[in-house]
Amino acid sequence: MFKKILIANRGEIALRVIRTCREMGIKTVAVYSKADADSLHIRFADEAVCIGPAASSESYLKIPNIIAAAEITNADAIHPGYGFLSENAKFSKICEEHKIKFIGASAQMIQQMGDKATAKATMKEAGVPTIPGSEGIIDSFKDCIKLAKEVGYPVMLKATAGGGGKGMRAVWSEENLEKAWEDARQESKAAFGNDDMYMEKLIEEPRHIEIQIVGDSFGKACHLSERDCSVQRRHQKLTEETPSPFMTDKLRKDMGAAAVKAAEYIKYEGAGTVEFLVDKHRNFYFMEMNTRIQVEHPITEQVINFDLIAEQIKVAAGIPIEGKNYFPELHSIECRINAEDPYNDFRPSPGMIKTLHTPGGHGVRLDTHVYSGYMIPPHYDSMIAKLITTAQTREEAISKMKRALDEFVIEGIKTTIPFHRQLMDHPDYVAGDYTTKFMESFEMEDQQ
């Protein structure tokens, strides 16, 4: 087992890793930028090293500074948390070259799963369902007709040079295909100077459901069930829950088996997440793989009584996993509390927290690094806390979350607490009837 782990991150995830290390009897090193000199993770670590100025490019992303901090403190492993360098193949490789264990995926694994085209091809080889579509550019409209029949309507035509929704057309039947083909190509040509097109199956009423997996260095993997992350704004998750209200026992079994198959096919080592899009008919398709711990990992821990950070550390130290799959025994919801103004298009709201009262009680967990008098710097991600409630049923978890949000007082800055409080009363959310398009029609009610 490791004697000392450096945490190459900040905020609540750094504190989260430090807590598990302390329970495991492992010494910790915190690194921090000058803007984070008063951060809580520094106070709880055994040692702390300043690695640069406020800008993350000069501190938390500065590989030489982090390696130097590990060497001068004699750390034998580095935990990257999430974000920053957690999925950086170069960083993983440099750690290996310096004989410091990177508690995460190998450089090769990160590269293999980081490129979406390579990842999709690999998953196809492994027999994991992927979104049907063209292998590359469609050469002619004749080929387009043939492919649409093979894939099955509805389909989505996409410009290879696309972006911002330009050069995209949803097509529901063959009679509309030719017009969509011409319109999309013309729009793409005008916007990007390129009219090359490809095609994918259109996922109807998509849900974003991910499967948590752990793989060891002996080629064995297991899954720890699913998380529903469909409530998103601009592809940023706002709240997550497990089990998914959309899930059936059969779908959970099938998706779990596919995720394990994916992990074992690539001999994945560490904690990771296989992400799927699931359509309204409960067909699921591989989307991507995250080769790190996820922000929303606490809800999985809560429903199966499992420490994922401890498991990451054990796997990195060469300890084999048990190999059994886990299924949720409770229901857990996580709300990401961001320093943002939900009444003003979620504009970031850095500044000093003047008053802080945190919720507690049975079934309430709060992962945070902030305190009264803490200055939230403007340089980093706006998430300041994760509020998690756990109960026997979904209805009870929602009731508990409402109560916890009502107790949660942060003054001095704007936060997303009012948004989450309104979300917990939204009839579609309460019914579990939401997709990745949910936020497109959500409107904040006026402040009382």
Provide key terms for this protein.
448 residues; alpha+beta; Rossmann fold; Dna Ligase, domain 1; D-amino Acid Aminotransferase, Chain A, domain 1; 3 domains; five-stranded parallel β-sheet; four-stranded antiparallel β-sheet; 14 helices; globular
Report on the architecture of this protein.
The protein has 448 residues and is an alpha+beta fold. It folds into three domains: 4-103, Rossmann fold (3-Layer(aba) Sandwich), CATH 3.40.50; 141-201, ATP-grasp fold, A domain (Dna Ligase, domain 1, 2-Layer Sandwich); 207-440, D-amino Acid Aminotransferase, Chain A, domain 1 (2-Layer Sandwich). The chain is 32% helix and 27% strand. The strands form eight sheets. The chain has a five-stranded parallel sheet with strand order 3-2-1-4-5. Strand 4, helix 4 and strand 5 (101-102) form a beta-alpha-beta unit. The radius of gyration is 23 Å and the shape is globular. The mean pLDDT is 95.
